[in-house]
Amino acid sequence: MAYPFCQSRAARSMALLGTLLWGCSSMDAPSRPVASTRAARISAARAAHSAIIPPPGSPIFSTSTVPSTGDQNPYGVAFVPEGFPRGGPLHVTDVVVSNFNDGDNVQGTGSTIMQVPQNGGAASVFFQGPAGLGLTTALGVLQSGFVIVGSVPTTDGTCGTIQPGKLLILDRAGRVVTTLSDAKLLDGPWDLTVHDAGDRATVFVSNVLSGAVTRIRLRAKGNRGVVVERMTQIASGYGTACNAAAVVVGPTGLAYDASRDILYVASTDDNEIFAVAGAERAEGDHGPGTVIFKDDVHLHGPLALALAPNGDLITADGDAINPDPTQFSEIVEFTPAGEFVGQLQIDPVVGSAFGLAVTRSRGRILFAAVDDNTGSLDEWRE
After folding, report:
1. Cα–Cα distance, 294 to 133 (Å, whole number)
2. What is the value of pTM for the model shown?
3. Domain of 281: which CATH number?
4. How crowded is the C-beta side of 251, counted as CA atoms within 13 Å?
């Protein structure tokens, strides 16, 4: 049965008040029967969320992410972080969005990154690459003034022509300064997350073709570019497969908890969320890690993944795996201990949820998510 708060954009906006990021309320979706002690533990955790982080208002804006070239199917979402240098088009708390499809809606051929200003004005093109790049969910912005984006191209939108791809590193003006490729360590860079330390950063990259995760240590050279100090495969063994709806499925969203040195991995094909311990320190491959969230009721091909300020994890269901017609295009919140917290429907159309990002800036919590069906970005603020 569809949840009553998942019927309209207004209702979906209100759902965020009680379920997503800022804690749960009586608007939560019905839970499956659980033991009384477990139910009490969940209830206490939800109450703590509500008490710690107050609910936000409705989405402050919804902006089209379709450029004049017609690129569509927005994938990656990233906030411009505090400390990002001035002197270019990007400003702190702006959002960048990568497009995977071109104007003819051919998957794996989009070549634009859109910039959505912090005030919610019209989006503009931050980066226009050559045709056929296929820009993925692997999108991140470094404090040192660089933007990283993954490219996994196809020639005709099918898995049969998919290529290993590469990572592009752009300066703050949107110019390519470095291109990274490696037949083994960057085999389909599908998503990424950044542990940023200013002039140095650790980037974790999920590879959709090899089913592995690579850690990249970067050092910024002022405004001249970045140096790769080392690339190491730290996790592997996630399922990968061609998929008619999504071209290919494999490990996608990554979220890193620096306080615990744990990397969380949303494995789409496995329909599970994994935790890889010691991700920053690892000197070799730790396998897939430990499953922390396996829930066929609420997980439907998890894609993007983010660690919220309240400690919860948030993923987007892409519906290519384990679809449920009553729960299309959901964003799901759960604890690292594997407890379901709540969910929000982005769009009633199948496959509309993909990229998302959350950050805290000047005491506010900012949350952004794309709607692939409408080609738009929604943003909420506390």
Report:
1. 33
2. 0.88
3. 2.120.10.30
4. 32
